[in-house]
Amino acid sequence: MQYSEKVMEHFLNPRNVGEIENPDGIGHVGNPVCGDILELYIKVKDNIIIDAKFKTFGCGAAIATSSMVTELVKGKGIEEALKISNKAVAEALGGLPPIKMHCSVLAEDALKSAIDDYLKKQGKNR
Amino acid sequence: MRKVYLDHNATTPTHPEVVKAMLPYYEEVFGNASSIHQFGQQARKAIDKAREKVADFIGAKPEEIVFTSGGTEADNFAIKGVAYANEKKGNHIITSSIEHHAVLNPCKYLEKQGFQVTYIPVDRYGLFNPDEVKKAVTKETILITIMHANNEVGTIEPIAEIGKIVKEKGICLHTDAVQTVEKIPVNVDKLNVDLLSLSGHKIYGPKGIGALYIRKGTRIQPLIQGGHHEKNRRAGTENVPAIVGLGKAIEIAKETMEGESIRLTNLRNKLCSGIGEKIDHVHLNGHPGKRLPNTLNMSFEFIEGESIILSLDMKGIAVSSGSACTSGSLEPSHVLKAMGVDPAIAQGSIRFSLGKDNTEEDINYVLEVLPEIIARLRAMSPLYRK
What we know:
Chain A has 5 helices and 3 strands.
């Protein structure tokens, strides 16, 4: 198993680490038994995700996919953000080893969960 | 960048003296040891000499040593060989829950073939209780296979005490001594074992070579059939250079083991106490005292092992982990699980295993870079709240 350069780069210099104060949506997925927990925070203005941050307990791939999904989502509208798939996250990282694809699924789940949380607060549903 | 290799329980660098001893057996003494001519006989002599060295080191007779392709083959041979040779006598095998997969998987295979296997539990230090083995013995028991020391946490098991229990019952006792040979004294009579596996590449010898000690009179079936090699116990043309290399590695170990065991214990303890002083929320995995001199397994709370390995690797430091992400499965280490370690804490486990080339400077370097790495990863973790 080998990581792409892009994965290593995002693992060593992850973008958007941290929490957002008063976020508009929070996604929390995973459990420590399986090895990964991802918390994703979003700030939304006029239906556009203007900021995203994360905190992750997990392996190199989990940290890199968290970093990448926050990068991909920034500046996107809610509808557009919901279309970001785990595959898109993996591809943006130059691919993931097969046994690490579940990390990208976690990133997609965390994003959807954060958006659902936002929509719920708005009284809407996906 | 400084390179610090701390993964000696995975494999060791081949000792330069070992390489030197092996080289003539590729081009000059290349004969097939089964041949009668002098090319073959020279190879035969080299094998005999190596066999004597291996036997002498563990207190065995040369004819009780069978060379194999490594520790895994030795374990497979011992377990399947004894099980099939004794299946008319009984079908019950006893092992522990913290064995290497080279033992666990042959046992699981035999379960599918109709054998019964009991997995003895361990306590939180990774020690099994000999009384549990005694209790597990039935009229059907034909084999007990328990490792001499655990590869992940380094806990040294009370093998000699089982020997006493089973001796009069005629049950075979096998131990996987792949991690103990060269690190602590290993003697087949003191351990009361009938079979013992060892490996070349864990003791500064070459890869692809190991040996199984088989006490005279032990009923065992060969695993590999073919020619009359190794007294009909293991077919296949002998890997002469590797056998010579194993012999040389053992010869070196005989001289260095005592001093190295003290030196490595000191270095390891320095690493352990340094980590304890500089980093909070850390746990030692394994027995505090009954442990291999070179092994230190620690858990760093709130973070995951693979991300620690990758970060250390970027600094030139090689270690391993029992986290799920590094095991190729989604489950953290079966060893830590059997010891009752919280799965979240098991995810953050790191094994440092020291060896002959490690120095105090190496340890200082690890202690210098590790706290930053742990702090960086914890700052990213949703589980860590200051």
